[in-house]
Amino acid sequence: MASAIESLLFYLMVAFVPYALASYGIMISGRVGLFNVSGEGVMLLTASAAFLTTYKTGSYMLGFMVGVGLGALLGAIFAFVSDKLKINQFIVGLTLFIFATGLGGFLYKVIVGVVLVPPRVQVLSPIKIPVLSDIPIIGPMLFSQNILVYITIILGLLFHYILFKTHFGLKLRAVGDSPRVADVLGVNVGVMRYTFGIIGSALMGLAGAYLPLCFTGTFTETIVSGRGWIAIAITLFGRWNPVPIIIGSLVFSGVEVLVYWLQAQRVAVPYQFLLMLPFIVTLLILIYTSRRLEMPLSIGKHYDREAIEE
Amino acid sequence: MKTALNVRVLLYYAFALLVAFGFMGTLLFALGYSPINGYATFFKTPFMNLRAIGLFLVKFTSLYLMGLAFAVPLQARKFNVGNEGQFLLGAIGAAVAGIYFGDLPSFVALPLGLIIACLLGMLWAAMPAFMLFLFNVNEIVSMILFNFISFYLVDYIALGSLRDVFAGHPMTIPVSDYARIPTIVPQTNINAGLVIAIIVGIAMYIVVSRTTYGYELRAAGSNPIASEKHGINVKLLAPLSLIMGGALAGLAGGIEVLGYHYRLIEGMHGFYSPLSIILTLMVKGNPLLLFLSTFFVTLVDVGSNALQRTMGVPVEISLILLGLLMLLIMIAEYLSERR
To answer: Could you tell me the pLDDT band of residue A38, with boundaries at 50, 70 and 90?
Structure first.
């Protein structure tokens, strides 16, 4: 029993990473006024490209770099089309979602083809932290994980520090809340939007690359299965703040592990209804969140420095 | 901000098309396929023979109604990305009704099937619409979540008590003959669903551009604050338009089941939702221009499927091509408005 709990808690952290990374990406883009809903597509494309890279070259580093790079590229396109061309951000996001989803599936089929047994890569092995990893139950959960688990937690705390404890963070938040004020204070709104639009999408790319390289070991067209959309709900739940986003991500990886556990227990509920559970929980969380919803004030709006103040 | 349809705009659009198809040819070439064969397959197969035209029109019907389901709420600046789930709910409704009410005479069974399809599509849209109305929950996220739930619902029904045990793929047993939509051209799949879609399309055009409701919808979309001040209930209009979209997508699912597959098949929605989003955005949701863009996108969809069958090019090329085209159109519009 103890080892069962140990393994469930271990997977809680493994499943936590993609939610958290994707949510950070949405959060940091939103903090500069860009609402990027293309995450699901970005993750599918980067999952596919990263898997193929690692499968062909054997290098995990290269796989992650391809994932992050492609994410960054899509983020640059998103920032350019929505900011420069002043197109509705939801329209740009949906278009990129469709484009990236197509490209992700396409690349895999072109390179691997339709095969009976899909190729696999070894998932990235855990790094054991001496002594601490020997603690029962929380040892394997927190101190014997792949490197991305550690990075994700540190990144969240780092974002919290930058956003709320530094002068730069104040400027960054100003761009999302009131670009005019930021502009008057000498912040280059355009540069900020591009930089963090790109970083945000690169984080989604990292989340996508993580899925085959650290989680499943293989690529399927359903590998992302809604995580990119659920991440938007997590970000809203966390009110665009890193620490609550970590908590929200843990809730969702908890639901994921719970569904897995319930299936293993052979409960008398058809498996389809178990698999619906994460989405139903997300809907309930969206309703709960709506009562005290907070958004960066200028999110989704174009900033035109020559326009007359309304 | 109606863009005047002048030569300049047309030129930009033509250029966007050229670049997108040029990219497709380059991609085919880079992957070692013959681009010439590719283009030929792409544009010829859909019209090769009467059977092919029939299949083309079946897809046209579904894509047009799906586009309409996205277009109506778009007038109020709402994005009905849930049309995928609404389509599937319509398909479920039509299949189940077509099996259980199959003993009834055709003039009852068939309309009943289609009405149940519409109602289930509406119900599926109504839930996120209520969440929008009551709690101001972003409709894009909630509707996508409902899509995922609908996939599992289809799986449950296609593998449940109505399962066709002789089929390898999850699907239900066929609907009764009485519930089927009659074909209008013998020896093809061309069925009366196409006629229904055209009539509904024209009706929607009139609703959107000639009625008070349509006017209020467009006003709510273009300037919600001013509309509110002039007594338009913006808060109520947007959710209602989503529910209307749900009925249209449900109808699409119903027609595809009762007019073509005659059963519920898992995965029958294919790329309908992403394709319908692009084809609607291309013409900014105008129900009449939608006929034109649906024709084009159906061509891309059928052409891509033919490319996969004959040359082994993955069918996802349709999404790449159209996604790229949409981005190019955005750039083209920016350039043409800037002068």
So the answer is: very high
Subunit contact B320:A103, Cβ cutoff 8 A: yes
Q: Which CATH class is domain A2-114+140-290?
A: mainly alpha
A–B interface: beta-carbon pairs under 8 A: 125
Residue A117 has what pLDDT?
87
User: What is residue B5's predicted lDDT score, i.e. its pLDDT?
Assistant: 58
- The span from the CA of A304 to the CA of A128, in Å, is 51
CB contact under 8 A, A286 and B138: yes
Please indicate if any CB of chain B lies within 8 Å of the CB of A269. no
For chain A, the structural domain boundaries read 2-114+140-290
Query: What is the Cα–Cα distance from A58 to B266, expressed in whole angstroms?
Result: 36
- Cβ of B314 within 8 Å of Cβ of A103? The answer is no
Residue % of chain B over a pLDDT of 90: 66
CA of B316: which chain A residue's CA is closest?
A102
Give me the mean pLDDT over the B83-107 stretch.
94
Question: What is the per-residue pLDDT across B35-83, written as a single tens digit (0 to 9) for each?
Answer: 998 899 888 888 888 889 999 999 999 999 999 999 999 999 999 999 9
**Max Cα separation, chain A?**
66
Residue B188 per-residue DSSP state: S
Closest chain B C-alpha to A289 CA, distance in angstroms: 9
The C-alpha atoms of residue B169 and residue A166 are separated, in whole angstroms, by 57
The DSSP code sequence of A20-51 is: HHHHHHHHHHHHTT-----HHHHHHHHHHHHH
Contact B140 A37 (CB under 8 A): yes
| Nearest CB partner across the interface for B141, out of A81, A92, A286 | A286
ipTM of the shown complex: 0.93
Interface test with B, best of A42, A78, A283 (most B CBs within 10 A): A283
Domain B54-302 indexed as CATH 1.10.3470: yes
Has residue B153 got a pLDDT over 90? yes
Chain segment A147-165, per-residue pLDDT in tens: 999 999 999 999 999 999 9
- With an 8 Å Cβ cutoff, is A294 touching chain B? no
**pLDDT score for A133:** 78
Long-range contacts of B101-105 (CB under 8 A, 24+ apart): B101/B176, B101/B179, B102/B175, B102/B176, B102/B177, B102/B178, B102/B179, B103/B176, B103/B178, B104/B178, B105/B178
Domain ranges of chain B: 54-302
- Which candidate in A26, A38, A229 is best for mutational testing of the B interface (most B CBs within 10 A)? A229
